[in-house]
């Protein structure tokens, strides 16, 4: 909005209201700048770790590889692992920045066949059995490509963070849209933080062996918001986590 087209306040109350609005705007701009700074600093830090690992092991091979060829495969394995980690991270970052610029087209959609297809495709990739509990039809106004991505990411996590024998339950009913697993679940402290970019749950639990970047749920949250929906984490009974979603039925 051009400055000269802004309404000129005449009454003191209007001046006060405008000044409050202005301060709020300023605050949110500052907040955004601070978030961006924090984000760039996080990204740099997260990328430095695998790069240090790669460079260190390249140097090891250069120094000792000829004299001690037996160390080469191990060093190469580290380089391979760390470069894969970087690749995953960069792909997720691209997804995240893509999602933040995305304006999506939402259409009345039956979620049941959409989710059934994701479940069918994904079942082949994981050990756990995925059980789909669905009504005949669950209509919501969504963008189907992003909803597929959301379910894929949640299934991916359920697969990563629950035992191979555990059952993953996907519910697409008019009462509940959710993905549940029987893994270790998420502590209340972590529930508040797992949607943050780069946040990974306590390293003493499931994460000590599970690879990840901490970006998956940040992307999920952004995609859910683009669909004007919401997502929350509940405890699954008797164990595990349940990601519960709502999407608008209309508008
Ligand atoms: P990543 O899996 O790469 O660490 P995410 O953003 O997808 O990143 O998840 C953030 C954190 O939330 C994970 O590190 C893990 O601690 C926790 N988490 C996510 N999904 C689950 C789940 N289904 N069960 C238990 N913990 C989970």
Protein topology:
Elements: H1 12-64, H2 72-101, E1 107-110, H3 111-123, E2 129-134, E3 139-142, H4 144-160, E4 167-172, E5 177-180, H5 188-191, H6 216-226, E6 230-235, E7 241-246
Parallel strand pairs: 2-4
Antiparallel strand pairs: 1-3, 4-5, 5-7, 6-7
Helix pairs in contact: 1-2, 2-6, 3-4, 4-6
The structure holds adenosine-5'-diphosphate (ADP).
Keywords: Kinase, Membrane, Phosphoprotein, Transferase, Transmembrane, Transmembrane helix, Two-component regulatory system
Catalytic activity: ATP + protein L-histidine = ADP + protein N-phospho-L-histidine
Subcellular location: Membrane
Please provide a written account of the structure:
This protein has 251 residues and is an alpha+beta fold. It has 6 helices and 7 strands, in the order ααβαββαββααββ. The protein has helices at residues 12-64, 72-101, 111-123, 144-160, 188-191, 216-226, and strands at 107-110, 129-134, 139-142, 167-172, 177-180, 230-235, 241-246. The strands form 2 sheets. Strands 2-4-5-7-6 form a 5-stranded mixed sheet, covered by helices on one side. The protein has a two-stranded antiparallel ribbon with strand order 1-3. Helix 1 runs antiparallel to helix 2 and helix 4 (144-160) runs antiparallel to helix 6 (216-226). The longest helix is centred in the N-terminal third of the chain and has 53 residues, at 12-64. It is flat, with a radius of gyration of 23 Å. Residues 157-158, 161, 181, 183-184, 186, 194, 199-201, 206-207, 212-218, 241 line the site of adenosine-5'-diphosphate.
